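Would you mind giving me a polypeptide sequence along with per-residue structure tokens?
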Amino acid sequence: MARTNKLLVPGAEQALNQFKMEVAQEFGVSLGKDTTARSNGSVGGEMTKRLIAQAQGQHGKTE
């Protein structure tokens, strides 16, 4: 399957991968093809929640 996600910031992929590994470690999930979609998805969902919370916090500070 083709990957369609485009990163807006060059070099952000490495930081996102590190973030993903940190969240997976906190959740006790070993990411990979042998892991269930539910487990892998829980990591992605938590990443999204944290990124949104961070963005909202920054947005609130600038107003």
